[in-house]
Amino acid sequence: MQEGVQLSQLIGDIYDAALDPAQWSAALRKSRAFVGGASAALYSKNAVRKTGRMYCQEGDISREFRQLYIEKYARLDPFSTGHFFAEIEQPIATADVMPYDEFLATRFYKEWARPQGLVDNLTAAIDKSSTSAVLFTIFRHERDGLVDDEARDRMRLIIPHIRRAVLIGRAIELQTTQAATFADTLDGISAGMLLVDARGGIVHANASGHAMLAEGSVLRAAGGKLAANNADAEGALYEVILAAGSGDAAVGIKGIAVPLPTSEGERYVAHVLPLTSGARRRAGTSYAAVAALFVHKAALDKPPPPEAIAKTFQLTPSELRVLLGIVEVGGAPEVAEALGIAETTVKFHLKHLFEKTGAGRQADLVKLVAGFVNPLAR
Fold it and tell me: pTM for the complete prediction?
């Protein structure tokens, strides 16, 4: 019972952070306590520029080591290729990406993880684009031990809510929001925003939301109730709205991003935020609303270049890691030093890379990767 209350309160904190980014620190602190770990981080990696950006981090990792990771070790992180092989929201640990003994031999472990006493991490991708991925990670200290089944199960309970909160935060793009002035503040955002009651009745809409309803190509008002032009989309939307009326936890994995196709073939997406708990409750009570819908045009779904390369040539995580090392670092000796593995191991993976890609030399591998990346970089 106590664990259920802890989870419910944590989910509420996560959704409050969707509206007020200042709340992410508390949400991450409670997340790492729930899953089990020394630190939690919400960050992104750019697959084209090979850079990272830390949105929020809470726990034992110092500012110095955070900066070192962004400036240097993001390139050397052997775990970087892991999320290219995992589905969104799938928790993966070091052992899912590479043999643990091999991880202990890497520069990343010896120079960045070991000095901090870190031994493992559990990561889930919560969004991917053609150039980057947004990741949520729990870092495990020696005192926590390696990632186990319990940690994976607990991560699965919270990651859909973290993903929904991040996507909503991205849609509204606000720095701070006070729940007491929720609707007034959101009236100026570019995404269509609609507040709905438990029956799907529209109780408030911002300017963009009114424009969408008036146009009628994505959503419309039918007798004061929200309606979609696609029957399947409408069913999915109402299922999430109904769940939102029962509280944060009830929403679960339902409708993280409800697709809303138009008759013209365009694609929109709706994110549903419950308003029946936490700091959001005041806004919901003021308008007799149980949920806020954020609707915006969907971006094209293109995998990041490394993921596209791996799928095209059926590469293993180790082969992809060596391939990216050849592009970013140089020849086999330099890649071996950077990855902390034997040069013979690098050459072994190179042999398979040549066989799978049809390349005849390392320069051809660089051109192959450039062919995937350059169109996206322009």
Answer: 0.77
